[in-house]
Amino acid sequence: MKENLSNKIIRVSAIQMKMTKDSEKNLSNSLRLIKKAAQEEKADLICLPELFSLQYFCQTEEPGNFSMSEPVPGPTTHALELLAEELNITLVASLFERRAQGVYHNTAVVIDGKYGYLGKYRKMHIPDEPGYQEKFYFTPGDLGFKSFKTSVGNCGVMVCWDQWYPEAARLTALNGAQILIYPTAIGWHPEEKNILGQTQHEAWELVQRSHAVTNGCFVIAVNRVGFEKHPSKQSGIEFWGQSFVAAPDGRVLARASSADTNILTVDLDMAEIKKSRLGWPFLRDRRIDAYEDLTKRLID
Amino acid sequence: MKENLSNKIIRVSAIQMKMTKDSEKNLSNSLRLIKKAAQEEKADLICLPELFSLQYFCQTEEPGNFSMSEPVPGPTTHALELLAEELNITLVASLFERRAQGVYHNTAVVIDGKYGYLGKYRKMHIPDEPGYQEKFYFTPGDLGFKSFKTSVGNCGVMVCWDQWYPEAARLTALNGAQILIYPTAIGWHPEEKNILGQTQHEAWELVQRSHAVTNGCFVIAVNRVGFEKHPSKQSGIEFWGQSFVAAPDGRVLARASSADTNILTVDLDMAEIKKSRLGWPFLRDRRIDAYEDLTKRLID
C-alpha cells in the first residue's frame, strides 16, 4: 500500500442481501446493489456476503449441487471486473469454485477497479455441523492466509468459519492486512433461537471484534439475511444478518439489522490503525519464540 | 483431571482488592478475604489480582523497588499453602519473583489444598507503556504456557498483558486448561478516561471473552481497584476493577463494579465446556498445517 493511504478515509459498503433460488436473479440484484453503493453512497470498497449468488445449499449433502459451481476467475468474476472498473471501486465477492471435477472450494476474490482481478482466497477452515455440511462440498483451502494490495489499502479476506480462528486473523494481519473482511452465511436454527440465539450472535460478533483489537485492523463482517428452508425438513436457517464494521480498538462503527436487506456504509479513518497499534502495541510483544506448539492439534 | 470433574459445579471467587502501600497489610487483608470467600461463600477456587501484596510499582522505573521481590516458592507461598490446606481450596496468586540478582519475574502460582504447591507460571508477554514500565522490572517468562491439574480441574494461568494474546490462551487450552485465569492490574489514566475509558475497558473484556469462545474454556479475570498515585507526577492509575467470569460460550456470568472491593463468586458448571466444544467444534478444524508462520514477527 502507498504510504499516503495510511491517513486516508475509506468509505466501505457491506451489502447485506437476501438470496432467492434463482442465481441469475441474485447476481443481477448484486450488481444493482453494488452500483447503488458506489454511485449513491460513494463507496470505495464494497463487500458481498458468502456465496452471494446462491442460496446456502450446504444444509444437505446433495451431489447435484456441484453443478452450481463455476471457475474462478470465470464469467462471474469477469462481470464483476467490468463493473469494478466502470465504478472505480474495490470489490470482495465469494463464489463456489470448481477447480476440477471432484475438487471444489469456497473461494473469495478481490477485484480492483484500477488493478483488475487481484486474486483469490480459498476458505481454510471448513465447518461441518447439522445444517452446515460444508466438508461435503469444499476442499479446505491450500493458498494460505492472504492480504491483497488494493486501491483502498491492504485487504485481508477470510470466509465465515474462519471468523472463529484467531490464527487466521493473525496470519492475515502479519501479511500486512489493514482491513479484515469476512463474507459470511451464519444464522439461527429456529428451533433453538429462543434459548441460544442471543448468545450465539454475541459470541460471533465479539470474536471478530477481538480480531480487530488484537491485530489493530478494521473488521468487516458481511452476512446474508432471510429464512432459507431445508430441502426436506420443516426446519431451515434464519440467517441473522447484523453485518457490522469494527474499528481497530474494537468499537462497532455500524451494524445492520437482523432481518433487512441493507447497504451498510461507513467511513474508515485509516489513521486509526496506527493510533491503535501505537497505543496498545501488541504486535511488538508477541512471544514468537514460544508459539511453535500452535502447529499441534493438542499438547497431550 | 479426573473424568468425574467434567460434570462438577465449581464455585469460584475472584477477589477484587484495593492495595495500600503496606505490603504486610495487603497480605493479611488477602488472607482474610480468602478465608471469607472459602468459609462464607464456600468457594472451591479463589483467585487474587496481579501482584496482590503490592501497589502497582511499575508506574516508574525505580531500582529500589526490586527489594520488594521475593523467592517463589518462598514465605508468601508457604503461608498460602497452609491456608489452602486448612480451607481445602485451590488458590491462584501473583507475586514479584526474585529468581536471582538481576533476574526478576512477574509470576503466578497455583496452590491446591489437597496437592500443595503445584507450580508457577512466569508472565510471558511483558508490556511497556507510559505508567506500565514492566520491561524494566520483569524478565519475560521462560516456562511457556501452562495448565495445572488441580482439585477443581485443569487451571491455566496467565497474567494481565497476556490477556491480549490469543496465542497464549490457545496454547494454554491446548495444554488441557478448562479454566483460563488472568490476575490483572489494569486501569485508566484519569486524563484520558473520559474519551477512551469505555472503549478501553470494552476491548479488554471482549478479547478475554473471545478466548473463552474460541477455546471452549471458562475465563476468570481478576483486577484490582482504586487510584494509585504516580510517585512524582500529579497523575496515576485508576484501576478499573470489573473483574469478571465468562462461560465457554462467551456469556459474562458475573462482573464486579469498577470501584468497589468485592468477592465475586460464581458457580461454573463444568459440563458447559463439553457442550460448547461439541456445539461449535473449533478445535477440530484448526489448520495446523498452515500455522507455521505464527512464529514470525511479521510476514514481510
Gyration radius of chain A, rounded: 18 Å
The portion of residues assigned to helices of chain A is 25-40%
Category from helices, strands and their pairing of chain A: alpha/beta
Number of beta-strand segments of chain A:
15
Quaternary structure of the protein: homodimer
Q: Please, what is the CATH homologous superfamily of chain A?
A: Carbon-nitrogen hydrolase
Output the number of helix runs of chain A: 6
CATH class of chain A: Alpha Beta
List strands and helices in order, with pairings:
The structure is a homodimer of 300-residue chains.
Chain A: E1 9-16, H1 23-39, E2 45-47, H2 75-87, E3 90-100, E4 103-112, E5 116-122, H3 134-137, E6 147-150, E7 153-157, H4 166-174, E8 179-183, E9 187-188, H5 190-215, E10 218-222, E11 225-229, E12 236-240, E13 244-246, E14 252-255, E15 262-269, H6 271-279
Helix pairs in contact in A: 1-2, 4-5
Q: Short description, anyone?
A:
2 copies of one chain form a homodimer. The first copy, chain A, has 300 residues and is α/β, with parallel strands linked by helices. Helix content of chain A is 26%, strand content 28%.
